[in-house]
Specification:
7 strands; mainly beta; 167 residues; globular; 4% helix; 23% strand
Length: 167
């Protein structure tokens, strides 16, 4: 098996303070690039509305990885699916991809919203989202992802039930 060593290019500052399954929307955070990257590495990024961000589930543990089929969120109403059918920290490399909206750029700080990572998250890579690089053709998926994620995943964090803590 080939292994790769990667270093973070930025860190998420602010936004969500703890990991939660739902109510990810409406929270602003900053993606702060490390000072080792010259400002010109971000030149032109402000022209884009959305970013593609690859980040690491840094609060996850290696023992969280589950290499077997299981029902999403432990819900027996949804079919057991394999490790690579889930989008969470139980995957071997514990990486995620998000598509936040870019609100502003201030030097090495990118102000974003709708980034489902928590304060302190290391960003492995980032680029602008190009419409032409998105899925081609009709997108097909089973019913369970929509049942699991709509409408609560991107619901505004300010609407989170009182039992949950604020972002």
């Amino acid at each position: 098996m080939t292994t790769y060593e990667v270093s973070s290019i930025a860190t998420v500052v602010g936004g969500h303070s703890r990991v939660l399954d739902d109510h990810q929307g409406g929270v602003q955070s900053i993606i702060r690039f490390h000072s080792t990257y010259p400002l010109e590495t971000l030149q032109g990024i402000e022209e884009f509305s959305h970013l593609t961000v690859i980040w690491r589930f840094h609060l996850a543990r290696l023992e969280d990885v589950q290499l077997h089929a299981r029902s999403p969120r432990g819900n027996p109403q949804w079919p057991a699916t394999g490790t690579f059918v889930h989008r969470n920290h139980r995957r071997p490399n514990q990486l995620a991809i998000s598509y936040p909206r870019l609100l502003d750029v201030d030097g090495r700080d990118l102000l974003v919203t709708d980034l489902d990572a928590v304060d302190g998250t290391p960003v492995i890579d980032l680029g602008p989202y190009f419409e032409q690089m998105g899925p081609r053709g009709a997108v097909r998926q089973p019913a369970w992802p929509g049942e699991m994620l709509d409408p609560s995943y991107w619901a505004n964090a300010s609407e989170r039930p009182a039992a949950d803590e604020s972002p």
